[in-house]
């Protein structure tokens, strides 16, 4: 990046506060939840852009193509309302959640549930090609223990999902279990076999270890809990790379907008706060426990996190 490019982001970083773009790489909104109030919270706290991920209605899961279309169209409509009422930039991710597939197996059987799931992926891909969404997701496999038959079927289905996305050069947001680097290695094998490029294979709700070796070179959105700051910082020390050369990683809240679980997974105000905390930690002198980065280097990382890498993964948000 040119000197001018590095200097540009510096104007947003005072040394303690970031006033530049802030992107939540994965959150949900729900009309029966706080919806626009949650979006306003994100905006008022400093947020500028959200990757809005389709949230399934587990109380009434779709069983027909018409119902799938209707559910996706409502997510797209919510995105429009957020843009118009709140003024946020919004990009949408559409797809069938893997847990919905698990829930539908008892009533439908694995074969029928899998067909419905793949049909829902195809519908999402049509919306991707029309420019209404920027990725398919969150797709993947169960994050909890299931019977071997279900687990094996989930992996075969995931391979097919990634293959279908590869044929349309469509990015994917993945929902998977957390078995540290083993999960990343397995997903990398599946996506390679399916023909999906690394740059299109993004894992959401990822740990804060963003070293290339740990995540098998896959882009991620990191769940920004309280321990995430030191995890990211330690990764940056270990990696020793120029930031621009890293595989993209974003921040996320995975906000569920569920009135029964307020603030879960993380609240909509979280990322502006974590962004400032990360910047301060990186710039803090080594003698005080920080990394001792200079102001320009910190600003450049925050710019990459919230503007360049989201654009790299999903295209510029206008």
Largest sheet: 8 strands, parallel
Q: Classify the fold: give the CATH topology.
A: TIM Barrel
Q: Helix and strand string, N-terminal first?
A: HEHEHEHHEHEHEEHEHH
Question: What is the annotated CATH architecture?
Answer: Alpha-Beta Barrel
What's the gyration radius in Å? 19 Å
- Measured as a percent range, the helix fraction is 40-55%
- Provide mean pLDDT, rounded: 95
Distance between the termini: 23 Å
The geometry reads as globular
Biggest sheet, spatial arrangement of strands: 1-2-3-4-5-6-7-8
Distinct helical segment count: 10
Number of domains: 1
CATH class designation: Alpha Beta
Strand content: 5-15%
- In CATH, the homologous superfamily goes by the name Metal-dependent hydrolases
Low-pLDDT parts are 1-6
> What structural category do the secondary elements indicate?
alpha/beta
3D architecture notes:
This protein has an eight-stranded parallel beta sheet. The two termini are 23 Å apart. Helix 4 runs antiparallel to helix 5 (110-129), helix 5 runs parallel beside helix 6 and helix 6 crosses helix 7 (180-194). It has ten helices and eight strands. It has a single domain (21-269), classed as Alpha-Beta Barrel (TIM Barrel). The protein has 318 residues and is of the alpha/beta class. Mean pLDDT is 95; it is low at 1-6. 43% of the residues are buried.
């Amino acid at each position: 990046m040119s000197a001018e490019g590095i200097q540009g982001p510096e104007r947003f970083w005072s040394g303690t506060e970031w006033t530049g773009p802030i992107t939540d790489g994965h959150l949900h909104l729900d009309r029966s939840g706080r919806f626009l109030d949650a979006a306003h919270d994100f905006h008022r706290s400093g947020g500028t852009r959200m990757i809005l991920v389709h949230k399934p209605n587990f109380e009434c899961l779709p069983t027909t193509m018409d119902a799938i279309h209707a559910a996706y169209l409502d997510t797209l409509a919510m995105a429009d309302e957020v843009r118009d009422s709140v003024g946020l930039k919004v990009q949408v991710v559409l797809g069938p959640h893997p847990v919905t597939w698990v829930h539908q197996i008892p009533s439908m059987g694995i074969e029928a549930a899998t067909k419905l799931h793949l049909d829902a992926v195809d519908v999402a891909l049509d919306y991707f090609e029309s420019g209404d969404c920027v990725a398919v997701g969150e797709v993947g496999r169960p994050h909890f223990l299931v019977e071997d038959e279900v687990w094996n079927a989930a992996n075969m289905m995931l391979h097919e999902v990634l293959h279908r996305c590869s044929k349309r050069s469509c990015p994917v947001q993945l929902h998977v279990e957390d078995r540290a680097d083993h999960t990343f290695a397995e997903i990398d094998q599946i996506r390679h076999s399916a023909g999906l490029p690394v740059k299109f294979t993004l894992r959401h709700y990822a740990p804060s270890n963003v070293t290339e070796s740990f995540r098998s070179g896959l882009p991620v959105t990191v769940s920004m809990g309280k321990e995430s700051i030191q995890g990211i910082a330690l990764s940056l020390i270990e990696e020793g790379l120029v930031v621009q050369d890293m595989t993209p990683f974003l921040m996320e809240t995975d906000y569920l907008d569920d009135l029964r679980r307020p603030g879960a997974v993380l609240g909509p105000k979280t990322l502006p706060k974590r962004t400032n905390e990360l910047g301060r930690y990186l710039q803090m002198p080594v003698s005080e426990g920080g990394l001792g980065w200079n102001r320009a280097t910190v600003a450049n990382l925050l710019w990459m996190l919230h503007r360049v890498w989201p654009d790299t993964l999903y295209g510029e948000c206008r």
